[in-house]
Amino acid sequence: MITRRQSLALAAGSLAAGWAGASAAQAAPSLHDLAQRSGRRFGSAVGAGAPGTLTASFDNARYRQLLERECGVLVHENELKWYVLRPEADRFVFGPADRIAGFAAERGMGLRGHTLIWHHPQWFPAWTTTHDYGARPAAEVERLVLEHIDAIIDRYGAIDSWDVINEAVDPADGSLRVTPFSQRMGGPEAVMDLAFRRAREKAPGAQLVYNDYMSWEAGHETHQAGVLRLLEGFRARGVPCDALGVQSHIGSGNADDSVGFDTARDDNWRRFLDEVVGMGYDLVITEFDVHDRNLPADVPARDAAVAALARRYLDLMLSYPQMGDILCWGLSDQHTWLQDRWLRDDRLPKRPTPYDADYRPKPLREAIAAALRDATPRRTA
Ligand code: XIL
């Protein structure tokens, strides 16, 4: 059934197409409309970073229009991370996160929460290493973590899916990363279990997610194995984790992956996902983009390769009925985190998102749309 909003959009799209040659994407159903057909939501990250920077997509009216047109769920790019939200132990900065949450609420969009703890020492604010933890450091960490979780969940009650823990597994050897908190609490498990349990208490209706970047590409086997051990541990200890967040920064050129597209290994990846869902976990695509660092300079060729890889990946992911929401880590090449790191040898701007830097839809948008059209219906417990 076509909703009133869709038919207005269609009418507006065909008018625009008649007058100004607007793209097919504008007249077509939104990516969120397509996702909903199989019981899912489509969305994107948006950032309220320093004006004029890559992470300031929220300040860009064109970007906001794109969010409104395509998305049913948003996620803060950085605004809920400790280093932004809590620059000092006793100071919370909610303003930037509030603006994005307010925008989503006004437009009836859902909101994901990223992240209660980024369990990676590089991303802990500096004060966590110099803080006076007192005579009972474990108790002080517990106090800080609970205070943090309570403050965020109390403020952002609309968030219905939480990345409770992000990136706890070290891809080098599959072990759990040591952080300023885990050192003082007697191990990473203690911190993670506490966070999941508190999140469940505070947000009983929300989906609780463990989020990480293990991927289908060659070289990720150790990371995958570490994540499986972690998820098994959650089950053994009765930790309330509902889903694995598969970040899905696919393509080439991530910090731990400099290989090309042809090394994707579907069978290995399916075995991994089968183990995850076999333990009763759902799946979420939390940060999708396609890194084009090692692809040819020629734009049509590059865009075609990105789209083809995306289609292959999303078809595989969306064949799982346990697979839920799908969020891109940015919708326009003007505002993607990949633009200022792991640069291309030719220094050309990258094209990892569904819209180019001028907000024109790319073949990647069509690949996502096609995968959503063909998706296996989502099965909810
Ligand atoms: C990235 C942001 O996009 C950047 O702006 C920031 O400098 C670093 O973090 N995995 C994650 C996200 O879980 O939080 C990261 O976001 C991208 C990789």
Structural overview:
The protein is an alpha/beta fold and 381 residues long. The chain has 14 helices and nine strands. The chain has a single domain, classed as TIM Barrel (Alpha-Beta Barrel), CATH 3.20.20. The protein has an eight-stranded parallel barrel with strand order 1-2-3-4-5-6-8-9, surrounded by five helices. Helix 12 links the parallel strand 7 and strand 8 (282-292). Helix 8 (137-155) runs parallel beside helix 10, helix 11 (221-237) packs parallel to helix 12 (266-278) and helix 13 (299-317) packs parallel to helix 14 (363-373). The protein is globular and about 60 Å long. Bound molecules: (3S,4R)-3-hydroxy-2-oxopiperidin-4-yl beta-D-xylopyranoside (XIL). (3S,4R)-3-hydroxy-2-oxopiperidin-4-yl beta-D-xylopyranoside is lined by residues 55, 77-78, 166, 247, 287, 337.
Summed up:
This protein has 381 residues and is an alpha/beta fold. The protein has one domain (28-373): Glycosidases (TIM Barrel, Alpha-Beta Barrel), CATH 3.20.20.
Radius of gyration based on Cα positions: 20 Å
% residues in beta strands: 5-15%
What is the assigned CATH homologous superfamily?
Glycosidases
Count of discrete structural domains: 1
